[in-house]
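Thread: Modeling a multi-component assembly for a lab meeting

Hi all, long-time lurker, first post. My supervisor asked me to bring a structural picture of a complex we are working on to next week's group meeting, and I have zero experience with this. I have the sequence lines for every component (552 residues in total). Could someone generate the structure of the whole assembly? Inputs are pasted exactly as I received them:
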Amino acid sequence: MPDHEHRVRVRYGETDQMGVVYHANYLAYMEEGRTRLMASRGASYAELERTGFGLAVRRASMRFRAPALYDEELLVKTRVDRVRGASINFVYAILRAADGTLLCEGETELACIDLKSPDRRPCMLPESIRRELEPREG
Amino acid sequence: MPDHEHRVRVRYGETDQMGVVYHANYLAYMEEGRTRLMASRGASYAELERTGFGLAVRRASMRFRAPALYDEELLVKTRVDRVRGASINFVYAILRAADGTLLCEGETELACIDLKSPDRRPCMLPESIRRELEPREG
Amino acid sequence: MPDHEHRVRVRYGETDQMGVVYHANYLAYMEEGRTRLMASRGASYAELERTGFGLAVRRASMRFRAPALYDEELLVKTRVDRVRGASINFVYAILRAADGTLLCEGETELACIDLKSPDRRPCMLPESIRRELEPREG
Amino acid sequence: MPDHEHRVRVRYGETDQMGVVYHANYLAYMEEGRTRLMASRGASYAELERTGFGLAVRRASMRFRAPALYDEELLVKTRVDRVRGASINFVYAILRAADGTLLCEGETELACIDLKSPDRRPCMLPESIRRELEPREG
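Re: Modeling a multi-component assembly
Sure thing. I ran the full set together rather than chain by chain. Output:
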């Protein structure tokens, strides 16, 4: 299955005084990437929360290779790396859309949590979500 | 009653490529200002939410006079301008702590909302909050 | 001339614990709105900065009418209200795209500054920008 | 050498609709932690930039263990893990100040860059910075 592709354009407020995108903002781009991937597979995250389940980020890592600049269009490539009983791993590559330069590689592990339990404890992923997100052969 | 004073230090991620604090971040400084003012008067906002009431920003305005720079310490002066039955107006002045230069003046109007109603409708301020925040003579 | 229209989708990180978009984030939507308006008129802001001129926000105000929710698509309508010698006023209306509900009205005044002067002093708008942004009859 | 300790208080705008701090904001807390550590060792980052050197985040990773809530005071413990010729590794532990619960562990690698070179290329750390940040025995 090919990576999911999503485009975002860098906002002014996302840059810092070094003249490039502040590193924390890539996590927002990655969030947009996985949200759109999920929606494209019929597994809307907003919908998932309405049914009482949330996905909480448990691990996140990024490797920055080149800076993104203001007003540049970025290509966020997102892939489900692994689905386990109670968690999902996404991997990301963020490229400058104009020339395909790799800017950032990232990875997040999301744990399923029960939004109806008072302490929001971890729980098994709903079967439908697992089925829709499971990595498949292209 | 003298203005409440709170100090914040500018984070790197709050600057933009113009080399100054991005304008939207002043709203976060103003939020810190009124939160600390409320806490100092025994009207903790976190506590207020736990009792089922919220304060939603209904209007906000800012006038920028000089830029704030990375790592500068800012002095956020906050004052309750007016308390009505269902809303509170705060006014702010943000200064560079080192020399007292005025950087930004702001104003926000917050409406009390009932967090327990499904549509979070406006409601009267709890009497205790009104009493604690009412502007008084110094 | 009709308002410029731009669509943005609410990110998860833009919500707060009240379950709605945190008010400061509307300034980012408004920034996207005027950036796209300028680009659509051949007056790219990124390009303007490369020629040594910047637009600094001098005033901003917002009136919140209804909350925006996570994952909602918003319609940002932007209009140039007034162009003076050294400043531009933009007005905004942000609506829920699905049903046209008005969520937020805003206004910003931007001052032209000379990025090549050491203290970034105010300066006249380049004539080309003034011409491209001047409000015109539809 | 004991870890450097810095306290931050969670802002409302840093929470998301899950009612906890949005994960990307921990990177801002970590930035504050290393900035204050550097300042406490006489190696102010703002000062470093004024001399023409920057530190760009090249890698970042976080492991989230428990959520931080609005208005909580957090303790950011920062330690220099390793100084090499052209980069510095910081490690972080973020705890709830009230009870010492570990909320987040993080790590960042920062590369020294030459802000005066047009393409901001990597360069050796100034000797003074290396000396001041080198991990030492307590």
